[in-house]
Amino acid sequence: MTQVFDAKGELIPVTVIQAGPCTVVQTKTGDTDGYVALQLGFGERKPQRVSKAYRNHCVKAGKGVFAALREFIPGEGQTFAVGQEIKVEEVFKAGDRIDVSGTTKGRGYAGVIKRHGFSGFPGSHGTHEYFRHGGSIGNRSYPGRVFKGKRMAGQYGNERVTTINLEVIAVRADEHLLLVRGCVPGTRNGLLTIQPAVKAVRRG
Prior knowledge:
Blueprint: E1 2-5, E2 11-18, E3 22-28, E4 37-42, H1 52-59, E5 68-72, E6 85-86, H2 88-91, E7 97-103, E8 109-110, H3 112-116, E9 154-155, E10 160-172, E11 177-181, E12 193-196
Antiparallel strand pairs: 1-2, 2-11, 3-4, 3-6, 4-5, 7-10, 7-12, 8-9, 10-11
């Protein structure tokens, strides 16, 4: 993340995303595959580090071996050819609303304070070796069990998350960069999927 100034001089926190160029690797149709989709390749990978099947599949596009392949549903009436490059400035412009999906940072097995934001117990007044626990999880004879969904310790992070309605602040076509207001899921250099916002709502 970094910061940029807009035309009014307002300081805006942004995330800089390398968004392309993406290459069309395969076009799927209802006749051949049972559904309509566009398979795009992004990034670079050494040919010797992938399987022969994956390598031969990528080579059909004539752009080398890609680090990642993802499928998208093309717009109505849009046609694409294998090997065609799709650039960020052709899809997004400043002011657009987008949904960004990624895998969040894995934090391992975490307690209720880190995982759910519990307050914990007082540091004095008789509290003895019970500072970061979750407290009671139910009653006695009734219901006689712990309700499903009870917030407890467990695996935290490393899950698919979508942040919706993020605003595109700027598109830097010469560098294939997308500047998005706010933060996005995942680690630095993580892989993201960017799509036009499904529930586009203007804020403020």
